[in-house]
Description:
The chain has 31 helices and 18 strands. The protein is of the alpha/beta class. It has 5 domains: about 15-60 and about 250-290, no CATH class; about 60-125, no CATH class; about 140-250, no CATH class; about 295-450 and about 470-510 and about 520-545, no CATH class; about 570-675, no CATH class. The strands form 6 sheets. The chain has an 8-stranded mixed beta sheet with strand order 15-14-13-12-9-16-17-18, sandwiched between helices. The protein has a two-stranded parallel sheet with strand order 1-2. A two-stranded antiparallel sheet has the order 3-4. α6 packs across α9 and α22 (about 490-500) packs across α31 (about 700-715). It starts with 15 loop residues before the first helix and ends with a helix.
Amino acid sequence: MEFLPGKGTGMSEECFPDICNRDTPTLYVYNTDNPPEGTVAKRRCYATLIGHMQTAAEASGLYGGMIKLDSLLFQYDNAKGDRSRQHALHHMILDAIAEAKLPVDVDHETPMDEMVRMCHEFLSGVRNSRVETGMHIFGNIPEGKNRVDMISSILRYDRDDRDSSPRRAVADMMGIDYETLLSDPSGFCKETGTSNGAAAEWIDGLGDNVIEMVLNGNTTEEIGESLGFEAWNRLEAPAARIADISYRMDGSDEMGALENALAGGYTRPGPSGYMTRGRDDVLPTGRNFHALDPKRVPTTSSWRVGERLADALLDKFMEDEGRMPESIAFQWMTSDVMAADGEMLAEMMSLIGTEPVWGSDGHVSSFRVIDAGELRHPRIDLTVRISGILRDTFPDRIDLLDSAIRTVAALDEPPEMNFVRKHFLEDAAAGVPEDEATARIFSSRPGTYTSGVSLAILSGAWKDEKDLAQIYISVNGYAYGNGRDGRTSHEQFASGLKKVELTFNKMVSDEHDLLGCCCYYSNQGGMTAASKHLSGKEVRAYFGDTREADAVGVRTLADELQRVVRSKLLNPKWIEGMKGHGYKGAADMMKKITRVYGWEASTGEVDDRIFDDIADTYVNEPEMKEFFQENNPYALEEISRRLLEAESRGLWDADPEVLDRLRESYLEVESWMEDLAGSGEFQGGSVEMTSPSDIEGLGENIEQIMEKVRRRIRE
């Protein structure tokens, strides 16, 4: 209801949320890790929120062929000087990579040290990810292993309180520099005789042992003796923090809060945020959560992270292309402000060569232009697509970024040092008014909350990249910032996208990844498709990672998809956890797989082996078919049909044997559907494709916009 058409705030009788709500009180059960959408429910539906706990997550770990490969790598690392043994392991490692279907592009000509480094980095990305092993059940408080996992997830983000971190305490007592393990996962840890990535996983496990023993009532001296550590007093700060989190967790009363609210009682307020970003202050749950003071964004600590993220992004592009990019497209979401204190806002300000100015109260009300002589890179131009929620909830932060862009565009600097000004001057020379030529921040029309691309992909309403590009431009071509307020600016939006050389989004926690919602591929995928189509060139897609403040990184979208798919979607831990929730678990499996399809449709960045493994894991495996048949056959039908659609559209070059088994399995699933319905016709495995040009009136309107853009480009 809160996303129906109407004003962003201050509803009127013509706004759909008010038409639906009228004067009926609204109680809304909501995850405390989702303040962006919770805030919209408050503002547009006057909702009282009953916040609930987040899902416990544990280390992903390795499984299947990755365990065998890791063992071989360990043997290689410990066979230094034994050339014959290393030569034998070379062939065995190559075979293990192929057997596990890992996206490590190596062959017999690849230098062995390089091959080992690549394998270690990939395995480290999987083993250092967190994976949910089920869902939170409203009203339940985690117990046993789930409580250990929950507290471990909270304490992993230790940017501001390192003394209270169990894993850092363990590393300190072992004389190991934990930052080195994070920053160089493929390096060798002499203290453990393993790769740094494996050492980090082992130390994390010991940290979990500390948590478990504290919860069991052991003293720090007993814990130190049990683990063989003499400096047991180093555990006092972690033990106190663990006990405090556990105490506040016990104070959660979600069901009681709901019953009290239903009886007309007062619901106490409380903060919100990702517990996996160290926000244990959201405990206890069962409160009417609120967001944050936006004027403090970006904070001084998020500014430092944003600067490092900007440098990592440019370094990655320089490594891949050998030069600096002139323009980058960003998908800027509310979670950046509410969960990460504006790390991406800081990154964008850093890229254009500006920095926030903080007042004595910590508020950011202005910015400073950094002198060109102080910059290590030119001022990089931006095209920013903001989410509808960010548009409605943080207009002052949008104005801050827009003001910085306008100021940089007006600087008297050489175009080769200021790409914002270079592109502004190009547009001005083409007759574009100044206020339009400085527009860099866009979204959908006021009162709407979609980029349109996911709707087209899931309904089959597209034929090629051009269709997705046209939909993305037509839905999102509305400019914002300092009075623009959703001004129609399709031509300027398209002009900016044509200049884009890479697209970017980032993750701040394993709680939400790029398969967690269709909005990720709809937005970054849509802007990537649009930029490719308009420029006629290849456009790189990158994904940032700020889960560890001391190990900020940027990887390709293809690599991030591999990490998420291997650590979660194909991980037996995650699958078994979802199976425990029956119908809902099956539905969540299906949703994540359709998002894999969405990423391939919009960007082409999904490795064929991912689709092969999804088909074999979810559709062709007898036990999984039995699970779906008993719990949610419709989910398996959707998974199977999406895979067949991917193959029929040429998005997936399937292994012939996998495809044959998939088709056989789908025939069986179709028979389930017929039995369930009794009679009627079914779509089956056929795909009916439409595009905007097939819809009367719509295609002509989009083509007119595109023709104006082409004319401007020619001029």
